[in-house]
Amino acid sequence: MLKGHRTTARSFLIALLAAGSLAGPAEAAPPDRIVFPVVGPTRYTNDFGAPRGARRHQGIDIMAARRTPVVAAERGRVRIHRGSRSAGCMLYLYGVSGTTYLYIHLNDDLTMRDDNRAADCRFGVAFAASLRNNQIVDAGRLLGFVGNSGDARGIEPHLHFELHPNGRRAVSPYKWLLNGRKQLWTTRTEVAAARVGVHGTLTAVREHAVRLAVTMVGVNPGPRSYWRGRDVRIGYGDEMVVERRSKTGEVTVASLEEAVPGERVSIWTEVIEPTLASRLAAPRVLVATRILLLGKD
Ligand SMILES: [Zn+2]
Questions:
Q1: How much distance in Å is there from the Cα of 37 to the middle of ligand 1?
Q2: pLDDT tens, position by position, 170-193
Q3: What's the Cα-to-Cα distance from 152 to each of 113, 147, 178, rounded to whole Å?
Q4: What is the pTM of this model?
């Protein structure tokens, strides 16, 4: 989607020289599994190397809704860049593996329209409100938000994501994206605790866990994101409240034994700390306190 990154390679080298690349192993490889850099539904193809004018595309364009959270692919140091004509609002992540990641076209819009009203790449708009230049961040940490700043103005919001092993020339991040660890949810600001609501279609109840194909996740406090069919397993204890809502909206006490695969359910977790494991919805980390059975459509 990017017409050209004439300045990206050069500014990358300048930034490397300016930052002094973060000390990593001399010939290290990127992690086998990075954290997927966008939290929420995305679309992408392997458009690395595709012609962009006289140059070739140096990254992959990950299409996502404007303001979708963007997160750290691995632990590393962040360098913030503002106002590049081609890249717009961007940041570099110097990963501890020695890999450098570029996050390009971060959000510069104050509304959900393509208004460019925050062209100065503000914190809380382009970058996470609490992020600081040179900060060391953990894998999966909120960095910023998807947008279409720079020469992506006027086209669909996306994250232009580059991966440079050993801080050298870019390679296609495609296989790392396919194998990436996808966080189910995140928050838009740093909070100590959050409660997650997961909505979807029940697939099974067994081994003290509810399995469902997720359609929507809401975080309190935080954003909603809509997924299509992502499988999640959420544990529960004896104290979980089970209720059923009828077609007429009446809510009654129910039992999990009457839950039917294929019916819609809403599940709320206990208040949890937003750790990487809880955001990845790793097995036995999310625990439900309430489930609402909604029946089949
Ligand atoms: Zn691009």
A1: 14
A2: 999 999 999 999 999 998 888 889
A3: 14, 8, 24
A4: 0.86
